[in-house]
Design goal:
single chain, 254 residues, alpha/beta, Rossmann fold, 7-stranded parallel sheet, 8 helices
């Protein structure tokens, strides 16, 4: 039930952090994986790590906020392997740190295009071929606990993540009859370069650790295993759900 042998997994933003961990765990489960981020040389280097371990990996650079680039990503995978069984939308952007009043229209548009519209595009590009084969498939959107909580510094990012949850539910009811499951993972604070502004400050990090029942920040591998699980038959009846992976932060009253 936990095997991905014979499956093709496309993971966006997969050259480091959460995305790379997801690709690693999917490859460990037997999947062929697509490594993708903006820079071609970085994609190539990460894919080489996989192939050195005897795992099948394809490097395809892509800026998911560019519709033509996203279509090229999907087309390249289909040409190479003829199918995509698991889509993971992990790539995201957050160029604004601060209150909403200081965010420009340009920043708003960039965040929404990269974090939300790209998910809409990729779903429409990838899910139809899953449906045509009749074998089902999975789509996992990496959201955030920012979708559940307000913030004075990453409120716009959280808004985009809440929109992703809405997209997940809509996609789940549309594609569920075709045996395609769509779910979201809501990570808490994970020690990645992307979230460094939230954990690099000692005082902020210590306060978060103290407020977390597990008494630690998350690591990328904490998300990788959950994402791989959601793509397997072990998760065959999980559809349209928010899986919160935050060490207990959102249920703690402290």
């Amino acid at each position: 039930m936990f095997s991905l042998a014979g499956k093709v997994a496309l993971v966006t933003g997969s050259t480091k952090g959460i995305g790379k961990s997801i690709a690693e765990e999917m490859a460990n489960a037997g999947a062929k994986v697509v490594i993708s981020s903006r820079k071609a040389d970085v994609c190539d280097a990460v894919a080489a790590e996989f192939t050195a371990r005897g795992q099948a990996a394809l490097a395809v650079p892509c800026n998911v906020g560019d519709k033509a680039a996203a279509q090229n990503l999907v087309d390249t995978v289909m040409k190479k392997w003829g199918r995509i069984d698991a889509l993971v939308c992990n790539a995201a952007s957050n160029p604004h740190f601060g209150p909403l009043t200081t965010a420009s229209d340009e920043v708003f548009d960039k965040i929404m295009q990269t974090n939300v519209k790209s998910v809409f595009w990729l779903a429409n590009m990838v899910l139809p071929q899953m449906a045509e084969r009749g074998e089902g498939g999975s789509m996992t959107i990496i959201s955030s606990i920012g979708a559940l909580r307000g913030s004075t510094v990453i409120g716009l990012y959280g808004t985009s993540k809440a929109a992703e949850v809405g997209l997940c539910r809509a996609l789940a009811v549309e594609w569920g009859p075709k045996k395609i499951r769509v779910n979201t993972i809501l990570p808490g604070l994970i020690k990645t370069d992307f979230a460094k502004a939230l954990w690099s400050d000692d005082a902020r990090r210590t306060a978060r650790e103290a407020a977390t029942p597990m008494r630690r920040l998350g690591e990328p591998r904490d998300i990788g295993g959950v994402a791989a699980f959601l793509a397997t038959d072990a998760a065959a009846y999980i559809c349209g759900q928010m899986i919160t992976v935050d060490g207990g932060v959102t249920i703690s009253g402290s």
